[in-house]
Specification:
By secondary structure, this protein is mostly helical. It is built from 9 helices and no strands.
Amino acid sequence: MSFGPNPWQQQSWDARAAGNFIGGGAGCGLLLFATLADAQGLLRQALLVLSLLLVSLGLLCVWAEIGRPWRAINVLFHPRTSWMTREALLAPLLLGCTAAAVPWPALQPLAALLALAFLYCQARILQAARGIPAWREPLTVPLIVATGLAEGAGLYWLAAAAWQPGRGTAWLALGALLVLRLALVMLWHRRLATQLRPAALRAVRHTAMLCNAATLAALALVLLVAVAPVAPSAAPLQALAGALAAAGGALFKFMLVTRAGFNQGFALPHLPVRGSRR
């Protein structure tokens, strides 16, 4: 695919659109991680409520971003062609099932599956924007999914530091997700480096650098927690590692939507001529 000489940054999606990906990804990742980690008691209920609030906040952001919010019902009419429609159709099922899973834990696995589907739909929404090279890159889908999972694992660690101090085995899962996110961001940046014009490439490079800095810092703290001799003394490190893991993912998605969203530009090698050519 050819690239024009003067790409410019898209203006249709702003911080409110980024808020949908941040809240939805973090909330779904938290719900999935809380289910896989088998959180119990008050911690489980608190994590489910937090995931419910994050997804709802993300949907509220995107509703506020629509030019005519009360016409948002139109997004439901294209399930065969639009990933945004599929996300919107999954949203009430996810919210309802998650709310019901707070008093009835038997519904939590179903809520986790819906969260995974919702997270995948969000990734495909970005990847379906064919005019934005940084979004349509095939690696965007696994990168957004991995970012949401890492955010959820970070939020789980942040909450568990207060409720249940101690590293357990969660450090291994969070560390693996951080390594996966780091590898995907680096590969995503490397693939785009051969395609983009300087302005767009600088935005992509800054996005990758900020995300990788937060990821490396969180990963270093995870390793410190893993070797900490006394579990209670590791609680502040655990909380900071979780916060950095979540913040790195949120920053990446914010920068991806609002800073790295350059189109591919336009090239017109043959200009149209009105009338007969002499």
